[in-house]
Amino acid sequence: MFRIANHYVSKIVFLLLFVEVLVLLGAAYVGAALRLLEYGDAAAAAHLDHFFTSAVAFTVAIIFSMSAMGMYQLDFDEGLRHPFFMKLMPSFLMAFAILALVFYMAPELSFGRGTMAIVFAVAGIGIFLARMAFFKSSEARILQSRIMFLGGGPLAKECSDLAARPSNYHRYNIAGFIPSPSEELCVPDTALLSVRDGDSLVSLARQHSVSEIVVSVQNRRGGFPIKELLDCKLQGIRVTDAATFFERETCQIRVDSLQPSWLVFGGGFDQSFARTFMKRTFDLVCSTLILAVTFPLMLLAALLIYLEDRGPVFYSQERVGKDGKTFFVHKFRSMRTDAEQAGTPQWAARNDPRVTRFGNVMRKTRIDELPQILNVFKGEMSFVGPRPERPYFVEQLIEVVPYYNVRHSIKPGITGWAQVRYGYGSSAEDALQKLQYDLYYVKNNSLFLDVLVLINTLKVVLFRSGR
């Protein structure tokens, strides 16, 4: 893993993305060369005047579409089986629609129908071969890294379970554990490393070909080998604490094993003027574009809501925003008008019986969220951010969920990292899981992460997952 604008990005995914960008650019030129063999030199030169721009547009459209279809959420166990083609074909169709719009607006960039067909065919073959090479390399353990854990208690067990699970982006080879005498042993005896008198952490790491040490000791008082860990770091062995390991591998911040000092002295939490200005500009641009594109759909949705039960089209509800200030959020009504007859707020749940027939469609496609664009224009919300909750639930969650108020340090969003990564939440336990994703976003928020959330939101809408 490495970081782009504070967000952890898999080296494997980045390398695959880089290779496929080259493949797609090459496919554009190969396809054009095959098509232009029948033309003379003058005609070919005239056609290729803007070809690099056309090739870049083609590459961006394909990469965007593949990202929206979740093709960069790799599954090495799945490999190149049936789901790969089920995602590749819709990706190409989406890219074709995007390119048709681009070429309609800028006809001088157009490939031509014959060239387009050849380019797509060459690109499909190239992507298949690139993916096959990546999955074969994973079988050869080229992508594995060897780690050991300092600690043998509950935290070390949880970290090792995370490292051992079939990961989309990493494959770890666990060398073993160095137990701490102050902790209850929670890992198998056979997994413990034999430490002889006089052995240092550096020599032990070298002996077992370890490239990373994960510090997973909860009690660090007395006998904690800080100097030896420093020696390891100076010798080129990565030293990672458990909180950072969880953040890197799950893209969330675990609150149950979190030290407050890690939040205080760690990086992130950028609330500078430059970041605020960029985020507000991003909010206004995205909201304006989406309002322009979806306005006819919003009119149709309003009509269908009214025709279903002759009730109100919109509903407004009090939510908690930045700095704990309340505001009224606006949505299309997706529930019956008597959804809360008892007067007590209730969690929304998957397959909620209070949801109307068309309301269920809107929730699956997120059409009900579109009126919140008005809240973005008013400055009460951002386009991307933590989901705003009702004051009734916030009061309860603050009492039982550590650090819950941290999510109120930025504006809530129409969509967010927690919504695209976790889905529905209908309990305090769900709220804890979503908070851990929200904390990751609050800590690492950037324009780059906002764009990733938007792409993932499109994937959620297309596959009808999440909330």
UniProtKB/TrEMBL annotation:
The keyword Transmembrane helix applies. It comes from the Bacteria. Residues 279-462 form the Bacterial sugar transferase domain. The keyword Transmembrane applies. Pfam families: Bac_transf. Keywords: Membrane, Transferase, Transmembrane, Transmembrane helix. InterPro entries: Bact_transf, EPS_sugar_tfrase, Sugar_tfrase_EpsB_2. One of its GO terms (molecular function) is phosphotransferase activity, for other substituted phosphate groups. It is found in: Membrane. One of its GO terms (cellular component) is membrane. It is a multi-pass membrane protein. The chain crosses the membrane at residues 12-31, 51-72, 84-105, 111-134, 284-307. Its main location: membrane. Belongs to the bacterial sugar transferase family. This is Sugar transferase, PEP-CTERM system associated/exopolysaccharide biosynthesis polyprenyl glycosylphosphotransferase.
